[in-house]
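Inverse folding, one chain.
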């Protein structure tokens, strides 16, 4: 696709604008995964902070999109070919430090895909009454099919899933907030109780949250390569769009769960699946139907983008050099990471998000977020 071909259109929209939106949707679709759809992620990192959780989530999305923006700009500006080269460029003259990202990435991919699998097992079993193993196989098969045909398919799939997810979550969360009708009371009570005591914790959670979301960086580089050679700040525009999408969706999710915290917080099952528990208490069948669609899309979207990040890293490695067919090569890598993640998912969704995501997030603050927002900005501007 020629990003600068303004006169060419797709669905009546200039292809340059579609490219910007599609890359923005990749990050949104990756973020809107199993932890997001179940509400477990929001509850763990933001809801417990009260009113300062709103500040925290906005800061988290700002840090995430700015990090991805600088990473894509550096990748395209210096014509780099892999995220290994990117981190060598970022850390130069300490090139060998790029191994730190490799460690973070490998662990976080397993955690992210495991969260999608665990979310499928927990939610689909309760929501649709499906067999645990059937749910895993179905989600795994969809992820496998969408990750073996390259960045173009991932970008298109993420665009369509992103649009559908955004549409669904807007309906679910806005209706949920209006039905609760107590947002002002909850915020006032939270501020009266906590004051500014939770603000330092909110800032820390923002960095941690943005940190573990950086697992999608290799996927963003592969999809953002479409902007290579473009001089219209397309990377920045795409991340501005992504910031708006992610902040609106996450903000509405957190606000709704704050309003219904007393409902889902009274049981262990409710704490694992806050959104599902909340919607059940509303007794609105059509909302449950929309949530079912959203849940499946969210589980699939994160699984696809994260697994593809792993595939794009290893598909050209020496280990698979004897497999000439690229589709078979990607299939083997995807199958490996999906099976491994299925095993990890047995520890449960809450433990994966609280401990697996948490510790990976701490590491990413030091090796991804801060370096790109300091050294990365300097090197990009200097170039």
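Residues assigned per position:
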């Amino acid at each position: 696709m020629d990003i600068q071909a303004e006169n060419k259109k797709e669905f009546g929209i200039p292809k340059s604008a579609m490219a910007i939106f599609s890359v923005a949707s990749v990050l949104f679709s990756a973020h809107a995964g199993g932890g997001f759809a179940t509400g477990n992620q929001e509850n763990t990192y933001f809801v417990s902070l009260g009113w300062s959780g709103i500040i925290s989530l906005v800061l988290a999305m700002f840090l995430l999109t700015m990090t991805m923006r600088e990473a894509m700009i550096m990748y395209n500006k210096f014509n780099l070919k892999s995220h290994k080269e990117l981190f060598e460029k970022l850390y130069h003259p300490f090139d060998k430090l790029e191994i730190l990202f490799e460690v973070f990435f490998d662990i976080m991919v397993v955690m992210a895909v495991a969260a999608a699998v665990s979310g499928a097992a927990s939610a689909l079993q309760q929501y649709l009454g499906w067999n645990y193993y059937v749910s895993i196989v179905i989600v795994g098969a969809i992820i496998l099919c969408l990750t073996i045909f390259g960045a173009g398919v991932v970008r298109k799939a993420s665009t369509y899933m992103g649009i559908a997810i955004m549409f669904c979550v807007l309906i679910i969360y806005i209706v949920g907030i209006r039905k609760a009708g107590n947002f002002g009371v909850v915020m006032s009570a939270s501020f009266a109780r906590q004051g500014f005591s939770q603000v330092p914790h909110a800032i820390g959670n923002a960095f941690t949250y943005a940190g573990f979301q950086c697992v999608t960086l290799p996927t963003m580089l592969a999809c953002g390569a479409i902007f290579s050679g473009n001089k219209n700040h397309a990377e920045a525009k795409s991340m501005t769009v992504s910031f708006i999408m992610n902040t609106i969706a996450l903000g509405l999710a957190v606000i709704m769960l704050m309003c219904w915290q007393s409902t889902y917080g009274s049981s262990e099952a409710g704490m694992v699946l806050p959104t599902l528990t909340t919607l059940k208490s509303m007794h609105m069948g059509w909302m449950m139907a929309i949530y079912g669609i959203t849940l499946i899309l969210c589980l699939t979207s994160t699984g696809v983008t994260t697994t593809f990040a792993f595939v794009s890293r290893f598909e050209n490695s020496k280990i698979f050099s004897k497999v000439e067919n690229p589709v078979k090569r990607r299939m083997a890598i995807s199958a490996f990471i999906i099976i491994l993640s299925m095993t990890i998912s047995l520890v449960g969704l809450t433990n994966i998000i609280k401990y697996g995501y948490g510790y990976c997030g701490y590491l990413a603050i030091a090796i991804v977020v801060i370096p790109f927002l300091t050294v990365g900005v300097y090197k990009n501007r200097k170039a």
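Strands lie at 9-10, 13-14. The longest helix spans residues 349-382.
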